[in-house]
Design a protein that fits this description.
The structure holds three protein chains of three kinds. By secondary structure, chain B is α/β, with parallel strands linked by helices. Chain B has 13 helices and eight strands. Chain C is of the alpha/beta class. Chain C is built from eleven helices and ten strands. In chain C, helix 4 (97-108) packs across helix 5 (112-132) and helix 5 runs parallel beside helix 7 (173-183). The chains are: A alpha/beta, B alpha/beta, C alpha/beta. Chains in contact: A-B, A-C.
């Protein structure tokens, strides 16, 4: 019998957008020199105007952060700092639906994901780090670890509020103040977060949010008043930042790209593996640095698995991100869509076989259907480079050794997945994978208590857990500082 | 028929692959639905050992993953027209059930009246489900209506009786007019690895049923891990079940979304392997319209629309019907109804 | 005492106050003692405050049953969830700050500022422990580099039901400081409150009952320590006992009785409850579990 879900859009009325947003420095919103527009990628409608921060705006934000660091935040007892972070966690929980709708509007991701993943995890991240603020002496970094100072943080557009939380929560817990620049295409939840800081009565200048493009980010990272640089984004920009920090001697952590292998052995729990593959590559339209973009499947079950995967992909629901039943939303920007298209074309040109389920795309906005390439070899561009879209490349292997060799055959090393019912195989493969996070019989799980970060060209440092604190504590002598003079 | 060959352990027994021998997807031969037992199947069922090799060669079920998938589907939002459709669909799938020691002909007559005409313009339910001694009463009440008579049998709910007693139970139900028989498997035999005994008992009941449809209750609340739910599902289908059913309703937990998910995957894969469509019945603990709609979503996104039909999916329930009726009234009038406005049967 | 009275016991002009019955807190409910007994509780200057329930050995037995029943759910909850619940206790306690300050002052005397400082410290103590719920495993757990093809790791786990003899003097801060380290990691507990000053403990039970803490995780008995404690110390379904609130000789006896089922006995030196607690109490109630798993294909 024909059955389909009627439209079930989440109400936009929980969000009240301003026409225009200033920069959040020193605890208040201030005007800047010029503005730019942020749009909804699902409809291309203009959502609001935001301020483009120029060099003088960056100066002002860094000065505000420095002032707050010296006068207030670094001298406040940890337990009181922690209370502010608990307040922020609670405010995020209280305003969760509003933030989720705004995130979905500005980013294009399905409301189900912003509601059930991004926002609860962001709140959890603040909650977790709130508890560390007065326990740093137990974290294994010496009896009284010190903060670094002012952190300049630049975050990407794929998980706007969650990446903000990953950056701000540990920085503040450890006693640093921050200047954060959200991505050009997704500034709105960071600005809403600034309002939350006001509601929390967070001392002015502890958190500063400056909006803008790559030039703003560059000005922030290069600013001499910054003691610590934290960046999440592309490997290309990450390398540039690493060079800059090598000269300046600033502490730096980088969370960069990935080309994760999701390895499925022949004894895997197939139905769950299929779910994990789908979640691994189509979660957040594949805009995930740790996405399982290379499926490595044992050749003996490849046909069977692909059949199940295609059947499952045919059930994915692409469309209005605000609809509560949508599985795949809009690609975040036209530029990203163009990039994904070029990669997909290269896959065809290289001789791989492309398949997507029947999937009508909306007329307006930026959309790309869930796509899988079979017959991919390691030499193909789509097996080597990060696509950052809903495009899966499928390769086969015959033995565990071959699977590990292929999985590691990349300059990246962020994450990997292993699917088998055999525990010892999980552990031996996990041991040999050169990746910062290995998921076994699951994929794309995140928790504030779990360190996240990559090997090799996927970056430096870890975020989350006890390990993540190190990035914001003065645990190295000056001469040990990475790239120090 | 390309049934899995016996004695091939491991993934060789996987559903979804065309065996014996490889054949590309799409070129699968769909077997004649009437061939129930084949050489391949008989080989699989030849002994405890061969059944064990087959059932333990099925892919594992990762509980965390299955639970997460069921949980995600439970967040689906079914509104307006889809909700109206789902409510009527759910009503039409109900096996309206009374299985109490205190059941009487009067109680069963009342239930049958409700089953035929639930009220509020709703469609009749699928069946009325009773104990065998009251199957005759139900048959009399439902003669000439689309509502089927379902009877539990085989010493329901424990199933702890000799085979001939169980078969007599089945035969008496069928003789009294039962269109459908809900049997329980021997969980003790299943859990002690005597798969052949479970198989033979189902097959014997299958024969005793004659023309009646056979629903095989796995009592998943007593089986432990989801791996066992998958194995019991396949075992029941191998032995000739028309339906596989979660629970008696007498054991907690009864039907759950993850268990039903695994059973729906089993019937989906069984059709892939044999071409034959087996039904699923979720029974016990389903009390609200919201619960029922979650099951419909689960069916829709797991086995697919082919199973959104009372011939292939049932909800074993009693109080559920009134909640569905209240929701139906709410959809039509725009206001919330109350328990004073639906009948107590 | 006038401000104190306003909040807790006495009357405004012309109005007769409604007094509270102070009962036990067991299994999420507030029963009277099964024995039907009560005893007079006075303020620091000897004035009548209330009749508190005088718990019997059977109340202690029931409380252990309630604690055991709650253990599976509470220890099985995620650490994040337990942390949120403990933080919720702090939130609710903060909302009743004035009431607790008044009760603490009535019970212990002293200045208003001192009572308020004790309440504030008690609230902050819940916050401190709330943060430990999802961190103690990283601080106390480990991956162990064994020589062989094995993955070997150790994780802390709660030991089970803890009997806590709460300090006799610090009626709120001390009480919180012995309960929180037990429950944060997933243990459940039976607490014997300060005998002479039990009322803040009962009121704390009201806070716990309205903070999403599952019933039975904390059970609070009021009465004579010397009467109840031996039954808890010898109880074979209690896994640990904190003898802080027992006088020295009784504490010795408790430790001996506890040996019957090798209870973990917590006997820490007298402490300034205002100071940072450290890990001692928390880790006293943890078992370390080490798991070996082969590595290989």
């Amino acid at each position: 019998m024909r059955f389909d879900y009627a439209p079930a859009p989440e109400s936009r009325s929980v969000v009240s957008l301003r026409d225009s947003y200033g920069l959040f420095t020193g605890g208040e919103f201030v005007a800047g020199s010029s503005v730019f527009k942020t749009i909804s990628p699902a409809s291309e409608e203009v959502l609001a105007e935001v301020t483009h921060a120029g060099p003088e705006d960056v100066d002002r934000a860094v000065a505000a952060a420095r002032h707050a660091y010296e006068r207030t935040w670094s001298v406040m007892p940890g337990k009181e700092r922690g209370k502010y972070l608990f307040r922020i966690a609670r405010l995020i929980q209280e305003r969760a639906r509003e933030i989720a709708v705004l995130e979905t509007l500005d980013n294009g991701k399905p409301i189900r994901e912003s509601r059930d993943v991004d926002i609860p995890l962001a709140a959890a991240h603040f909650f977790y780090h709130a508890g560390w603020a007065d326990k740093l002496s137990y974290a294994g970094f010496g009896p009284s670890p010190r903060p670094l100072g002012v952190a300049g943080q630049v975050i990407p557009w794929n998980f706007p509020l969650l990446m903000l939380a990953w950056k701000i929560a540990p920085a503040l817990a450890c006693g640093n103040t921050v200047v954060l620049k959200p991505a050009e295409t997704t500034p709105l939840t960071a600005l809403l977060f600034a309002e939350i800081c006001q509601q929390a009565d967070l001392p002015p200048g502890v958190v500063n949010v400056i909006t803008g493009d790559g030039a703003t980010g560059h000005a922030l990272v290069a600013h001499p008043g910054i003691d610590k640089v934290a960046f999440t984004g592309s490997t290309e920009v990450g390398k540039e930042i690493a060079r800059m920090c090598a000269v300046s001697g600033q502490r730096v952590t980088l969370e960069l790209g990935g080309k994760a292998a999701n390895i499925v052995f022949d004894d895997a729990p197939i139905d769950q593996a299929v779910e994990g593959i789908v979640n691994g590559i189509f979660f957040n339209q594949g805009h995930v640095c740790c996405a399982g973009s290379r499926l490595l499947v044992q050749e003996s079950i490849a046909d069977e698995l692909m059949e199940s995967l295609r059947r499952r992909m045919s059930r994915l629901r692409l469309g209005d991100p605000l609809d509560k039943n949508t599985d795949i939303g809009a690609v975040n920007s036209r530029a990203q869509l163009d990039k994904i298209r070029i990669f997909a074309e290269s896959g065809v040109a290289d001789g791989a076989e492309r398949w997507s389920p029947a999937c009508p795309l909306p007329d307006r906005g930026f959309w790309f259907p869930p796509t899988v390439f079979t017959g991919v070899s390691q030499a193909h561009r789509i097996a080597q480079e990060e696509i950052f879209g809903p495009v899966l490349s499928v390769l086969t292997f015959r033995t565990p050794d071959e699977a590990v060799a292929k999985a590691n055959n990349t300059p990246y090393g962020l994450s990997a997945g292993v699917w088998t019912d055999k525990g010892s195989l999980i552990l031996s493969v996990a041991q040999r994978l050169r990746a910062g996070v290995v998921w076994a019989n699951t994929f794309n799980r995140f928790d504030p208590a779990s360190p996240f970060g990559g090997y090799k060209e996927s970056g430096y440092g870890r975020e989350g857990g006890r390990h993540g604190l190190e990035a914001y504590l003065d645990v190295l002598g000056p001469s040990d500082v990475l790239g120090g003079q | 028929m390309n049934a899995p060959a016996a004695g091939r352990p491991g993934h060789a027994a996987r559903p979804g692959s065309s065996r014996p021998g490889p054949s590309p997807a799409g070129s699968r031969v769909v077997p004649d639905e009437s061939t129930r037992h084949t050489d391949g199947m008989n080989e699989v069922a030849a002994s405890d050992a061969s059944l064990r090799r087959f059932l333990h060669g099925l892919p594992g079920v990762d509980e965390a993953g299955a639970t997460a998938r069921a949980g995600m589907l439970a967040t689906r939002s079914v509104k307006t027209d889809a909700k109206r459709q789902a409510i009527d669909l759910a009503i039409s799938m109900i096996d309206l059930t009374t299985l109490e020691g205190q059941d009487t002909p009067g109680k069963v007559r009342a239930l049958c009246a409700k089953a035929r005409h639930p009220g509020f313009g709703a469609p009749p339910v699928a069946a009325v489900c009773v104990y065998p001694d009251l199957a005759g009463v139900a048959a009399q009440q439902l003669r000439g209506t689309p509502v089927k008579v379902a009877s539990v049998a085989t010493s329901f709910p424990s199933g702890r009786a000799a085979l001939d007693v169980k078969l007599a139970d089945v035969k008496s139900a069928v003789a009294a007019g039962a269109d459908e028989v809900d049997m329980v498997i021997d969980r003790g035999a299943f859990l002690s690895g005597r798969y052949r005994a479970v198989y033979e008992e189902i097959a014997a009941v299958r024969i005793a049923c004659g023309g009646a449809h056979l629903k095989v209750i796995l009592e998943t609340g007593e089986l432990g891990p989801l791996d066992n739910v998958r194995r019991a599902s396949w075992l029941a289908m191998l032995a000739g079940a028309d339906f596989i059913k979660t629970s008696t309703g007498k054991v907690s937990p009864a039907a759950t979304l993850p268990v039903t998910l695994v059973m729906l995957e089993a019937v989906r894969d069984w059709r892939e392997a044999t071409g034959r469509r087996i039904g699923v019945k979720a029974a016990g603990g389903i009390r609200t319209a919201k619960d029922a709609i979650r099951y419909i979503v689960l069916v829709h996104e797991t086995a697919g629309e082919d199973w959104l039909d009372a011939r292939y999916f049932r909800l074993g329930a009693s109080s559920l019907l009134n909640d569905l009726l209240m929701q139906r009234d709410r959809m039509e009038t725009g206001r919330y109804s109350g328990p004073d406005y639906v009948t107590v049967d | 005492m006038s401000e104190v009275s306003e909040v807790a016991v006495s009357t405004e002009a012309g109005r007769i106050a409604v007094r509270k019955t102070y009962k036990l807190y067991v299994g999420g409910a507030f029963p009277r003692s099964e024995s039907g007994r009560s005893y007079v509780v006075t303020d620091s200057s000897g004035g009548f405050l209330a009749n508190a329930a005088l718990a019997s050995r059977k109340d202690a037995r029931d409380a252990v049953v309630a604690a055991r029943k709650a253990f599976a759910g509470w220890s099985g909850a995620t650490a994040y969830n337990r942390g949120q619940v403990l933080y919720r206790i702090a939130e609710v306690l903060e909302g009743r700050r004035a009431q607790f300050a008044a009760e603490v002052r009535l019970a212990a005397g002293g200045s208003r500022a001192r009572a308020e400082a004790e309440v504030d410290a008690a609230i902050d103590r819940w916050v401190w422990y709330a943060g430990w719920a999802d961190k103690i495993a990283q601080v106390r757990g480990s991956a162990n580099p064994v020589a062989g093809p094995y993955f070997n790791f150790s994780v802390p786990e709660p030991c089970g039901v803890v009997a806590v003899l709460a300090p006799q003097d610090s009626v709120l801060l001390g009480l919180v400081s012995v309960i929180a380290p037990a429950i944060v990691s997933g243990n459940t507990c039976v607490v014997v409150a300060s005998t002479d000053r039990p009322l803040p403990a009962v009121t704390l039970g009201e806070v716990l009952a309205t903070s999403d803490l599952p019933g039975g995780v904390v059970n609070i008995l009021t009465g004579q320590v010397a009467e109840i404690a031996p039954w808890l110390a010898s109880h074979m379904d209690v896994n640990a006992i904190d003898v802080t609130g027992a006088p020295g000789a009784l504490a010795d006896d408790m430790a001996v009785a506890a040996a019957d089922n090798l209870k973990r006995v917590v006997r820490l030196p007298a402490t300034d409850w205002q100071g940072e607690p450290g890990l001692d109490r928390m880790v006293s109630y943890l078992e370390t579990k080490t798991v070996w798993h082969p590595v290989g294909s």
